């Protein structure tokens, strides 16, 4: 979850330009966090901290600027100092986000447990604690925590949504659907509805189409692509391939960089044994994103089926080079070599 604090956003852009002076023109070396700390923009705050070393707000302000400029380790030290001097709900939220970026789930959990005790009325901190339990690998504790929150406030739609996402991770699809339906009924926002529609689509439930059409009807700007993509998944699962292709083409018309739409469209052609069109579509996916391993894997599948084993091998190897854990590509490569 992201947090934006407007009071400091005007400080964001100048720091990049000022910090850029810390290394020579044309240098490929990244700007160090120590260099950013000494940038001209931070001089007034640094001076103030030296004069007033016990003012939590100064450390918080510097931490926010450092975070906005990707100096997350330096920002962590300032958030920690600000929290120690004067704990606040705002500091807890920003500090928790920083610890997520710095990959410190155990520290994030301890911070949020402390914050919940200090600010028991904060729903946001409570929800973040549930996320922290998940990140720390304590899914059972996270689920228990969400249930506890919902027992106190059954109308907390955001917690219903987070619980639904957790249940999906735990492969409890039935209860995940129940939680997401509850979230969507309480607050019919696109995020909740489309997550639910995606599950329905994969299960072949036509309710998926109803939700997507509802979202599209409300999309006056005609910008959304996800509803078309999800409808494509539904029609593909139902083997209504021509209707699926229409939906994927609608995605691509609205966003030609939507790589997954090319992949799914290509898979439809592959299932129809139209390997020429499938190859063309997977090549388009690789053109849109040449670091997308699935495009090369599916090109490999096409070449393998039409008995062009050398081309298949090259593409499987490309897929594995981009994703070392691509099990299907590794299995396919072994199959070619056997």
Annotation keywords:
338 residues, mainly alpha, Serine Threonine Protein Phosphatase 5, Tetratricopeptide repeat, 20 helices, globular, disordered N terminus
Radius of gyration: 25 Å
Which band does the percent of strand residues land in? under 5%
* CATH class wording of the domain at 1-23 and 31-116: Mainly Alpha
Distance between the termini: 47 Å
The whole-number mean of residue pLDDT values reads 90
Query: What is the third-level CATH name, the topology of the domain at 1-23 and 31-116?
Result: Serine Threonine Protein Phosphatase 5, Tetratricopeptide repeat
The residue fraction in helices comes out at: over 70%
At the fourth level of CATH, the homologous superfamily of the domain at 1-23 and 31-116 is: Tetratricopeptide repeat domain
The assigned structural class equals mainly alpha
Shape: globular
Order of helices and strands: HHHHHHHHHHHHHHHHHHHH
- Low-confidence stretches at least 5 residues in length (pLDDT < 50)? 1-30
Largest sheet: none
- Quick one: how many beta strands? 0
CATH architecture of the domain at 1-23 and 31-116: Alpha Horseshoe
Number of H/I helices: 20
